[in-house]
Amino acid sequence: MQLSRRDFLRILGIAGAAGLVPGLANSATHTSDMYQMQGFGDVRLMHITDTHAQLMPIYYREPNLNLGVGEAFGRPPHLVTGSLLKYYGISPNTPLAHAYTPLNYVEAAQKYGKLGGFAHLKTLVEKARGEFGASKTLLFDTGDTWQGSGTAFWSRGSDMVEVCNLLGVDVMTGHWEFTYLEEEVRKNLAAFKGDFVAQNVKVKEDALFNGAQAFDENSGHAFRPYVMKELGKHRIAVIGQAFPYTPIANPGRFIPNWTFGINAMDLQELVRTIRAKEKPDAVVLISHNGMDVDIKLASEVTGIDVIFGGHTHDAVPQPFVVRNASGRTLVTNAGTNGKFLAVMDLKLGNGGVKEFRYKLLPVFANELKAHSGMQALINQIRAPHLDKLQKPLATAGSLLYRRSNFDGPFDQVICDALRKRNDAQIALSPGFRWGTSVLPGQTITMENVLDQTCMTYPETYARDMSGTEIKNILEDVADNLFNPDPYYQQGGDMVRVGGMTYRIDPAAGFGKRIDEMRLDNGEVVEASKKYRVAGWATVGAKSPGEPVWETVAAHLQDVKTVEIKKLNVPMLKNAGHNPGLDFS
Amino acid sequence: MGVSRRQFFKSVAGTIAYAAVVSAVPARLFAAWNQPAFTSETLAAAIAAKYGNMPIEESSAIQIKSPEIAENGAYVPVSIATTIAGASSISVFSEANFSPLVASFNIMPRMKPDVSLRLRMAKTANIIVLVQAGGKLYRTVREVKVTIGGCGG
Fold this sequence. Notes:
The structure holds two protein chains of two kinds.
Chain A: H1 5-10, E1 43-48, H2 81-88, H3 95-100, H4 105-112, H5 118-132, E2 137-141, H6 150-154, H7 158-167, E3 171-172, H8 182-191, E4 195-196, E5 202-203, H9 205-209, E6 226-231, E7 234-241, H10 246-249, E8 258-259, H11 264-278, E9 282-287, H12 291-300, E10 306-309, E11 320-324, E12 327-333, E13 340-349, E14 352-362, H13 372-382, H14 386-389, E15 392-396, H15 409-422, E16 426-431, E17 443-445, H16 446-453, E18 460-466, H17 467-482, E19 493-498, E20 500-504, E21 514-519, E22 530-536, H18 548-559, E23 561-562, E24 571-572
Parallel strand pairs in A: 1-2, 2-3, 3-4, 7-9, 9-10, 10-12, 15-23, 16-22, 20-24
Antiparallel strand pairs in A: 1-13, 5-8, 6-7, 11-12, 13-14, 15-17, 16-19, 18-22, 20-21
Helix pairs in contact in A: 7-13, 15-18, 16-18
Chain B: H1 5-11, H2 35-39, H3 43-51, E1 56-58, E2 62-65, E3 76-82, E4 87-94, E5 101-106, E6 114-119, E7 125-133, E8 136-144
Parallel strand pairs in B: 1-8
Antiparallel strand pairs in B: 2-3, 3-6, 4-5, 4-7, 7-8
């Protein structure tokens, strides 16, 4: 069932959200339209992140499992479903509740329709700029823009550069952008009309010696570390923070000249220098650290007014306020797959932010007209590939999605495909957080498969691993997810496992989280015994097999209808009352 | 030494006054090469062989700049600086290495106590830095994680 526009407006979930949508909450004349944005203060800073090249409107189910450990227990972004709604005062069964949580997902998705799409996003950006006065606004993109779709892969990210130029992105930073080759990254950045900033990407010393290109040979910065932006009479410093662990979580072989890191001390030094030299009215960091890392960084590094964050794909309705030695820093995270446009209005004074208003606006495709120019560009990008993208492969008998700490049904499909087509006992698939959802009854197209798999290192493998090796992989990834110190986390979710179950204690220390490893037939996985393991997306070296999308497509054509009856979630230990968990 | 002045300053990007690439310096050049300290197989034995029984105090005046997660365990860049007055020696230990003492720097009176090096780490471990000043040792510890990696995103 689709809602009429009138019904949609009537049931907007903002009545109980005083403060959430400031200026609208208790105003009888305005409660009807979440996109009616009264301007506030001096500048309007907008933000998109982790769109993963989803040009068209999509379904994307938010997680019901997003555990926080240590200090992050029960703290944003580690709140799901009812806990999240309660924390932010959002009414259930409303469009906002649907956008931020997986509650009644299928029913709500049918009711409210798809989200995102760059043509609809463009309409919303134009509206937000026009209302405020375009010269006093900026649009940030915190990366993961050039990867995630077939068209982005086939054009090596350049289709997204064109789209972002038309959208009007002013400043961006990156992560999956670096999964193309250095010369491709440089070429795309040359075509990008905005500024690309990253204080934490440096050219390695030996590469500098051999003449590798750098923004500043003395400092070693590969890219401009920050840019000053004039908005009316205000000057905003925008610093970039790329994903600090790119050459570890993704193949370093594509970008051998560059070295990354959180580089908190360098960042502090840079903020001090900017404040002294540029006398800015505000300093903001556009960051691909992930929200837990950003929160810790905000507590350590002083002098940053706002961190606009991405990477962890968390749709966080309001900024998290972090107090530090010299004041406060607002930390945001703006979701993924083009579902949201974040809008922050700031009142400035004394070199910082006096007051703010923030909205994480869901881009409901049924409620926003597609911008004709952007739609035309998108159609032009897709036209040569439409037959391939729209090729039907199977029918979804049940809901397919990916995002969750441990497993999503679409990953189960990938693991099943890997095991069957490689004759393997066990399958491993990375815990990515991108990948769209398919509703029950819908046709699964090649585009849906590419949404889950499309990247520059998709090759599959099948090889023998000992029980100890498998356990070491699980422990390593678990520590990347659950290390109590966020600086030691890499983002992403737990590696997905097919053909085997295990038990995990997220709160335990390194090497002690995983036990009870058993094959599906109940047989205990023995440390020294060898098992046939299939997988894909190897970071160290290129694997010999076919791209995983071919494996999955062939499997889907075999099975015809996909029914995931039971999710492959491990047994959880010591996670009973975590507000980041909801199995209901 | 095997390091040209140009290379020397280039390698520290002009921000650090003094550095030494230890691997490039032949052992025989050291006036008093402390063989037992560099070959001790435990942290405690290495510290004892290098510094005897000097008292050790935790210090926040030693800054260790190192990656939280190493991009390459075979080549971990570490910089150490201290504001402790009268610092005469800086030693770097990696707990998990077969020989934990990785490097030791004698700091001359007119030298800025600010050094950089690359070290090899087989697995996740603490880097322990000891600074000697007067008859006392000051210690700071920082963990560097070495992962098998590859499932983030």
